[in-house]
Amino acid sequence: MKLKDKVVVVTGAAQGIGEAIARRCAADGATVVVWDLSAEAAKAKAAELSETYNVTASGWAVNVADSAAVSAAAAEVVAAFGRIDGLVNNAGIVADAQLKKMSEEQWDRVISINLKGVYNCTRAFVDTFLAQGSGSIVNISSVVGVYGNFGQTNYAAAKAGVLGMTKTWAKELGRKGVRSNAICPGFIATPILASMPDNVLKTMESEVPLGRMGEPAEIAAVAAFLLSADASYVNGAVLEVTGGLTI
Ligand code: NAD
């Protein structure tokens, strides 16, 4: 129960990696706040976690790209629970195309969610983190943000930007007791990969030294570590969780 009584907000937590992180936080005793686009999905997930793990969990419809909605929701979280101990900036999308075909709309959409969304959410909670003098921010970036990827100009730019913000916050907020770290997952089996052709997925898998895709729970375990006191001296780190893909 390493997160007992901690209040953790996870964005994009109705499915995939965010769901696994919210689940792991609940299993570790945290009060979990599920943010996602659909109120119904977020509330249903929170209800399931609350029942399964006997913790407080609540679900809210929050579009991380909407700064006004994020500010309002953050204020409600602080009013409801009195604090925030962990923020997991997980919500993200893809809208792939090679550069010569990438539209401005595709660029803007990915940047507004994957990059500005991370700024919006952290900006909305930073005063509370600083007033408390404690907290852990976990940003879900990607190996694509470090190494680039064919067809992902927008996604790579956003995920690299997330690493820049992570390190900046580690410097700005570290002295005040607030840690910021990033996880760069490799290939993780979630619906986000649904648009990829089977043969591409098989080739990707064959390039992983562990010989398989990762499971969302394997990212969640690392997020839970970063949120916990076990990571008390981990700040500004970028953890690649890839099965060895990048070596
Ligand atoms: P997913 O598509 O399965 O889940 C993403 C969740 O985010 C969904 O529940 C979706 O509704 C929510 N979401 C989307 N836009 C949102 C918005 N504007 N506001 C709030 N919620 C929103 O994706 P996933 O694979 O679980 O990815 C989660 C994170 O991990 C993303 O940031 C993604 O870029 C990153 N990532 C995934 C992989 C992978 O292989 N799956 C690899 C590297 C990084």
Automatic annotation (TrEMBL):
<dbReference type="InterPro" id="IPR020904">
    <property type="entry name" value="Sc_DH/Rdtase_CS"/>
</dbReference>
<keyword id="KW-0560">Oxidoreductase</keyword>
<dbReference type="InterPro" id="IPR036291">
    <property type="entry name" value="NAD(P)-bd_dom_sf"/>
</dbReference>
<dbReference type="Pfam" id="PF13561">
    <property type="entry name" value="adh_short_C2"/>
</dbReference>
<protein>
    <recommendedName>
        <fullName>3-oxoacyl-[acyl-carrier-protein] reductase FabG</fullName>
    </recommendedName>
</protein>
<comment type="function">
    <text>Catalyzes the NADPH-dependent reduction of beta-ketoacyl-ACP substrates to beta-hydroxyacyl-ACP products, the first reductive step in the elongation cycle of fatty acid biosynthesis.</text>
</comment>
<comment type="similarity">
    <text>Belongs to the short-chain dehydrogenases/reductases (SDR) family.</text>
</comment>
<feature type="domain" description="Ketoreductase">
    <location>
        <begin position="6"/>
        <end position="191"/>
    </location>
</feature>
<dbReference type="InterPro" id="IPR057326">
    <property type="entry name" value="KR_dom"/>
</dbReference>
<dbReference type="GO" id="GO:0004316">
    <property type="term" value="F:3-oxoacyl-[acyl-carrier-protein] reductase (NADPH) activity"/>
</dbReference>
<dbReference type="InterPro" id="IPR002347">
    <property type="entry name" value="SDR_fam"/>
</dbReference>
<keyword id="KW-0521">NADP</keyword>
